[in-house]
Amino acid sequence: MTATSIQRNDDGTEPSAGKRAARIAGAAGTGAALTYLSFGLLDWADRRDARACANAPDFCMTLWPTLSLPAALVVALVGLTVMYKLLGIRPRLAVVPPTLLLAPFPLAAAMDTAGLWPAVVVGAIWSAALALTVWRPYRILGLSTAATLLLASFVVIH
Q1: pTM
Q2: Over residues 67-86, mean pLDDT
């Protein structure tokens, strides 16, 4: 393997159409599952905080809401890395960080406007769109889908 093939990800192992579709479906399923789990963890932490502070006369805050967001990000990072390795989606370094760092914007916009299940669908679309950017013929489609979701979420949020 030469340095050029490592940099460009052209090692001759382009997956067939069926394998590529299975990988994209796996990425979408992973995004949906991680979105549902992340929102579930955040909701659980908020409910636990509200229960613990129900009888407090003054300001009350527990560590659960503070620790739930980093915990959700760590779970999503490990989940995406493991699943993308199993699915053969690489280079993971080009896919996982944008998926994690930019995902809160479309997910928060979908959760605020439509609720949990549309946010799960947006998480699936977001993950699948960024996984599409790995393969050269679908890079424009994946980037334009992700950019459209991100721009729409900025419009909804602001």
Answers
A1: 0.83
A2: 91
